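Q: what does this look like with zinc ion bound?
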Amino acid sequence: MTPVVEKIGAAVDQWVAANQAALSATRRHLHAHPELGYAEFETTSFLEERLRHHGLTPRRLPTGTGLTVDVGAGGGPVVVLRADIDALPLNDLKEVPYASTREGLAHACGHDVHTTVVLGVAVALASLDGLPGTVRCVFQPAEETVPGGATEVVASGVLDGASRAFALHCDPSIPAGTIGLRTGPITAACDRMDVTLTGPGGHTARPQLTVDLVDALGRLITDVPGLLSRQVDPRTGMSLVWGAVNAGVAANAIPQRGQLRGTVRVLDREAWKGAEELMRSLVTRVAAATGAEVDVDYIRGVPPVVNDPRAVALMRSAALETVGSDHVVLSAQSMGGEDFGWFADVMPIALARLGTHGGGAPLDLHRGTFDVDERALGVGVRLLARTALHALEADAEPQHSGPPAPPRTRRPAPGDTSSRPSVEETHRR
Ligand SMILES: [Zn+2]
Ligand SMILES: [Zn+2]
């Protein structure tokens, strides 16, 4: 630990010890007032007011919700801490004083915790002198949508000039006071594919005179996943699983139209890039043998979050100082999606798992019963503050400056939301 990390890190520890109740109050306020993706107006105003109150100058994102704020005296390296601020369209089933006050809306993915943690880091660091660079806190909208509010953050340019980005996500499978880390992929990509087959229809007595659409659907159902397993490296974990099949009504009539819907999940980012082309080609090849007309609607979701080894190493130093080696665990790769993966288009990233289980029955994300042990809030603040300090120190040292940031590979025009599906259509996981 360098003297700067030691000194400012200890000051953050003191800040957390003195502000535990305030952190809980913030989290409970957010928890009671959830808002859906791109509609987080009250949440954004709340954050704006709190940041201004502590002498900071937040700027709204071009999307209208979400904001970014720079902490530090200016100059030096810039590192990003990212929180997501949106909630889910489901009922809060908990009987607690801070339960959601809004019918059909709940912070069931812990984004209230992520927001409280990054706000806490911003306020804590703003009260301290000697920060060796700039900590850019990004409060991002609409994580729970496809392709996710992270795409708007990347497109808006607010990440320009930063060297690395860090985030955390609640993990109810590990106890509060524990931090999960993993180098490489930590979440999965999940795309959606809808296949529509059409044909002339006809009598089941004479399939030779038409296209047997139900038979064609059956071939696609079994042959496409089967062929896929022989066309991709099994280690990429690419899988196609159908979730819906619909065609026909009468026992003796061949229908004119049938539809399949399924999800494509991929653990590997490179393989994900080629997934759409591969799926379209497999479906087209199998359908061609049947004579049916085929239309494929492929909806790309989010890429896997692939944790950069160096960024994880910085986070590990912070985690060891925060909770000690007995409480830093290896995190498993999740099949869930997380739009923070888009940040990796422009810089190295690392996402940590923040243990939130406080004992009692097992809890899971995206359920109305989800709650956290609020001791995790202080752990999160200390972890991300120290991570930022380590990263600033590393990026200030010439011997660790490393190669320049990778070139941008994906940057849609700012404000280009023309292809953004609605929250209802896109809610996932
Ligand atoms: Zn979620
Ligand atoms: Zn989440």
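DSSP finds ten helices and 16 strands in the chain. The chain has two domains: 3-186+304-426, 189-302.
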